[in-house]
């Protein structure tokens, strides 16, 4: 695990005064500096676009009880016997469509976001990144920040909308690691930022710029969010409302209508509607020109680059649609990083 900032120089504990330093017992453990750490966390991704790596990743991801809320006794046989026997091959093929020389887009973009955030925070904080599943685990990220002398840590789950399957799962993993620490750091978790004006302005500016560069004028703007089982809405998960609010507020900032939809259906249960694929097909049949944005993702990934930008486009055009554009996520763009830096600085108030 790497941190982007300078490494800590271990300091001698201040239990000793100047005069006693020379006589310090060799056995006294080093006491590190009091730095601030920021841990950016995203979902995680396979290490390679191959069935075996995808299977390993999916086994961990889909065994999280925050993600699939079924009793293990029922779910694990289905997961091991059916899902992990079929899905990795299919998903690996999809990953191969979007894989880059730097690896999975999600991993590469998250790394770049951490570097850029470190550059903009300068000496004020040490930045590291971690993934909830797969390589770069959260525990390693926290340990790296502790080793760099951070006694105060801000964990920033890179999910604009709160969802138990994502935000709460990150928090669970952080707390599980904290429970193993003797000397815990002070901890803050970045709240959801979907309706923060700075987030909405960044989305609007990125969208406006991208649309300005198109050779057509979209008549419909679709905001596609990752889906969730509908029952989670009735169980009190605020995700649905936060997605709808993001689309509505983004539309207000833009002065245009933004139509929300939900993608990436998984399993047999009823998921949130309207479904992005059905919506794109319907818009295609009407001969529309659309721009699709994915304001539930802080970084482009399989779900945006393959499902929307490749498959969504094909579906839409095959149904008779005129023009299609996928608008990239904020990623490590200047406007995205300015927004993230501002959110992080606000959240560090009183610490900085
Ligand atoms: C942005 C928020 C996300 C929510 C909410 C979410 C819920 C959720 N996802 C699955 C199942 C899968 N998701 C997969 C990929 C994936 N999911 C998110 C984000 C959210 N998921 C991202 C950023 C990614 C992309 C990862 C990447 O490597 O690029 C996958 C894996 C791919 C595949 O096989 O299709 C699955 C499976 C469930 C079941 C769920 C909530 C119940
Ligand atoms: Fe997902
Ligand atoms: Fe709602």
What can you see in these coordinates?
This protein is an alpha/beta fold and 352 residues long. The chain folds into three domains: 18-45 and 102-192, Rossmann fold (3-Layer(aba) Sandwich); 51-98; 197-327, Rossmann fold, CATH 3.40.50.1400. The chain has helices at residues 18-21, 51-61, 72-98, 105-121, 138-147, 164-178, 197-212, 230-234, 239-254, 276-285, 302-305, 307-318, 334-347, and strands at 35-42, 126-131, 150-157, 186-189, 220-226, 258-263, 289-293, 323-327. α6 (164-178) links the parallel β3 (150-157) and β4. Bound molecules: the ligand C=CC1=C(C)c2cc3[nH]c(cc4nc(cc5[nH]c(cc1n2)c(C)c5CCC(=O)O)C(CCC(=O)O)=C4C)c(C)c3C=C and fe (ii) ion (FE2) (2 copies).
List its traits:
352 residues, alpha/beta, Rossmann fold, 3 domains, four-stranded parallel sheet, 8 strands, 14% strand, globular, binds the ligand C=CC1=C(C)c2cc3[nH]c(cc4nc(cc5[nH]c(cc1n2)c(C)c5CCC(=O)O)C(CCC(=O)O)=C4C)c(C)c3C=C, binds fe (ii) ion
Query: What is the strand arrangement across the widest sheet?
Result: 2-1-3-4
**Ligands and ions found:** ligand L6N33NVT, fe (ii) ion
Structural class: alpha/beta
Rg, Å, rounded: 22 Å
CATH class of the largest domain: Alpha Beta
Q: Can you tell me the CATH topology of the largest domain?
A: Rossmann fold
| CA-CA gap between termini | 25 Å
Indicate how many domains the architecture comprises: 3
Question: Share of helix among residues?
Answer: 40-55%
Strand content: 5-15%
Secondary-structure arrangement, i.e. CATH architecture of the largest domain: 3-Layer(aba) Sandwich
GO cellular component, one term: cytoplasm
Catalytic activity: Fe-coproporphyrin III + 2 H(+) = coproporphyrin III + Fe(2+); heme b + 2 H(+) = protoporphyrin IX + Fe(2+)
Keywords: Cytoplasm, Heme biosynthesis, Iron, Lyase, Metal-binding, Porphyrin biosynthesis
Main location: cytoplasm
């Amino acid at each position: 695990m790497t941190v982007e900032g300078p490494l800590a120089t271990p300091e001698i504990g201040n239990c000793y005064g100047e005069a006693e330093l020379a006589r310090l017992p060799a056995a006294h453990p080093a006491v590190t500096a009091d730095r601030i750490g920021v841990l950016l966390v995203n979902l995680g991704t396979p290490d390679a676009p191959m069935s075996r790596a995808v299977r390993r990743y999916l086994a961990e991801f889909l065994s999280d009880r925050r993600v699939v809320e079924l009793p293990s006794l029922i779910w694990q046989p289905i997961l091991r016997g059916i899902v992990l026997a079929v899905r990795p091959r299919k998903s690996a093929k999809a990953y191969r469509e979007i894989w880059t020389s730097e690896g999975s887009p999600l991993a590469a973009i998250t790394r770049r976001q951490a570097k850029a955030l470190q550059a903009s925070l300068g000496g004020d904080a040490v930045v590291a990144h971690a993934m909830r599943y797969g390589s770069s685990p959260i525990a390693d990220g926290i340990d790296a920040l502790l080793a760099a002398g951070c006694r105060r840590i801000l964990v920033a789950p890179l999910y604009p909308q709160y969802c138990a399957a994502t935000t709460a799962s990150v928090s669970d993993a952080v707390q599980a690691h904290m429970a193993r620490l003797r000397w815990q750091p002070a901890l803050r978790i970045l709240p959801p930022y979907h309706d923060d004006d700075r987030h909405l302005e960044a989305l609007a500016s990125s969208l406006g710029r991208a649309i300005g560069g198109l050779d057509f004028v979209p008549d419909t703007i679709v905001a596609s969010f990752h889906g969730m089982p509908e029952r989670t809405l009735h169980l009190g998960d605020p995700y649905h409302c936060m997605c709808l609010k993001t689309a509505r507020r983004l539309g207000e900032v833009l002065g245009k209508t933004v139509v929300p939809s939900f993608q990436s259906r998984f399993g047999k249960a009823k998921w949130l509607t309207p479904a992005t694929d059905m919506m794109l097909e319907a818009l295609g049949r009407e001969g529309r020109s659309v721009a699709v944005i994915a304001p539930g993702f802080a970084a482009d990934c399989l779900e945006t680059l393959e499902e929307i930008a490749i498959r969504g486009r094909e579906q839409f055009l095959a149904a008779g649609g005129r023009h299609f554009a996928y608008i990239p996520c904020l990623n490590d763009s200047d406007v995205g990083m300015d927004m993230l830096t501002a959110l992080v600085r606000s959240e560090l108030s009183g610490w900085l």
